[in-house]
Design a protein that fits this description.
Blueprint (H helix, E strand, L loop, with lengths): L1 H9 L8 E5 L7 H13 L4 E6 L5 H10 L3 E5 L2 E3 L18 E5 L4 H14 L3 E6 L5 H9 L3 E6 L5 H10 L4 E4 L4
Parallel strand pairs: 1-2, 2-3, 5-6, 5-8, 6-7
Antiparallel strand pairs: 3-4
Length: 181
């Protein structure tokens, strides 16, 4: 499935299209596939649609699925259900001191999403975002405006020497690995 998603993403002819991935509902064996597609959706919004359905959808079902504009839904007995997350009230717990958090792949879609979550939901105040590109001025500005001290560094997490240099320059207390997603 990962190879299929990567091929789909790289094929220029498919740039304006969406790939519909269908899995059976409540199937633990397909949970990994759903997780993989969700990761691809976070990196490439609008390119993938995840559908839980007992059977392969008909052409009419596919038209209806794509017309919803939803990234994920289930179809049963001709009706759609769409998952929604809602914020729940939390207690007034003091924010933990996370120290400096390294996010590998921090300038990519999923890494940036995680960095925002760490700052907003967990009060992380010091981030090192490592990514192959090494630049993310909008993300840097956004996280800084939220009160975080942010370092964006060009570093391939698969290159041990580059990673060693990064850690020597920026000691960290926690690591979130989102590179290669």
């Amino acid at each position: 499935v990962l190879r299929l998603l990567r091929r789909w993403q790289r094929d220029e002819r498919l740039a304006g299209t969406r790939l519909v991935v269908v899995t059976p509902p409540a199937s633990p064996a397909h949970a990994a596939v759903r997780g993989l597609v969700r990761s691809a959706q976070a990196e490439n919004p609008g390119r993938y649609v995840l559908v839980e359905h007992e059977h392969l959808p008909t052409e009419a079902d596919l038209r209806r699925i794509l017309a919803t504009g939803e990234p994920e839904l289930s179809l049963a007995e001709g009706r759609f259900a769409v998952p929604r997350l809602t914020a729940q009230p939390t207690g007034q717990e003091p924010a933990a001191d996370w120290g400096t958090v390294l996010v590998t792949g921090g300038t990519g879609g999923l890494g940036a999403l995680l960095a925002r979550h760490l700052v907003r939901a967990h009060g992380v105040r010091r981030l090192v975002l490592a990514g192959r590109r090494g630049t993310a001025p909008e993300l840097h500005a956004e996280l800084t405006a939220l009160g975080a001290e942010v370092t964006v560094a060009a570093c391939d997490a698969g290159d041990r020497e580059a990673l060693r240099r990064l850690l020597a320059e920026h000691p960290v207390d926690s690591v979130v690995h989102a590179a290669g997603t």
